[in-house]
Amino acid sequence: MNSLQNRANAVMAFSISAIFCLLGAIALSAFIIPTSPNGLVAVNSIKVVTGRYDKTWFDYKTRDNQFANTVMQIDADLSSLFHWNTKQLFIYAVAEYSTPTHSKNQIVLWDSIIKRKSDAVIRKKGIKNKYSVIDVNKKWTDIHANVSLHWNIVPYVGFMTYGHSQASEPYAFPLPSGIQT
Ligand SMILES: *[C@@H]1O[C@H](CO)[C@@H](O)[C@H](O)[C@H]1NC(C)=O
């Protein structure tokens, strides 16, 4: 009955349960660690250019799509999001606006991955949009969008959690010429 194999089996089963409890506790601990992330995205310039999509896009023939070229500045301190269960942060700046045809539109302007706590204090100027900024209606007329910084916290164990900064004041797309914010 009490063979060596039985004992080994019991020890194994107990260790595995203990490890899972520990991992569970680490995963849950992320919800009780106080954090104080803050971030601001400001748009310094918005220029609208008219053109085509790139060649691989099905709508390549259309010449009059309006793309917005934005230049942003980000001031954020996300270092408090780095704790023992943070592997990395995925951060992205989002423009949000509504139009008469679509009440909620969100466009990712820029993104980045932060792997170290020492890189989590971000003071960056002159950030150009990394992805095409185009509305579904392909026109930027009378649209006001606010921008905010979003983050996903990628953990070592457990669930990915999300957060975002306060949104900026709405910016007119395009900014009236001559106005710099
Ligand atoms: C940002 O814009 C969206 C869409 O217009 C709006 O729903 C949201 O309330 C705005 N956020 C702030 C903080 O003004």
TrEMBL record:
Pfam family, one: SPC22
Domain of life: Eukaryota
Membrane topology: Single-pass type II membrane protein
GO biological process terms, semicolon-separated: protein targeting to ER; signal peptide processing
A GO term from the CC aspect: signal peptidase complex
Keywords: Endoplasmic reticulum, Membrane, Signal-anchor, Transmembrane, Transmembrane helix
Endoplasmic reticulum is among the record's keywords: yes
Residue spans crossing the bilayer: 12-33
Subcellular location(s) per record: Endoplasmic reticulum membrane
Keyword field contains Zinc-finger: no
Protein's job: Essential component of the signal peptidase complex (SPC) which catalyzes the cleavage of N-terminal signal sequences from nascent proteins as they are translocated into the lumen of the endoplasmic reticulum. Essential for the SPC catalytic activity, possibly by stabilizing and positioning the active center of the complex close to the lumenal surface. Essential for viability.
Stored PANTHER family: MICROSOMAL SIGNAL PEPTIDASE 23 KD SUBUNIT SPC22/23, SIGNAL PEPTIDASE COMPLEX SUBUNIT 3
Homology family: Belongs to the SPCS3 family.
Designated name of the protein: Signal peptidase subunit 3
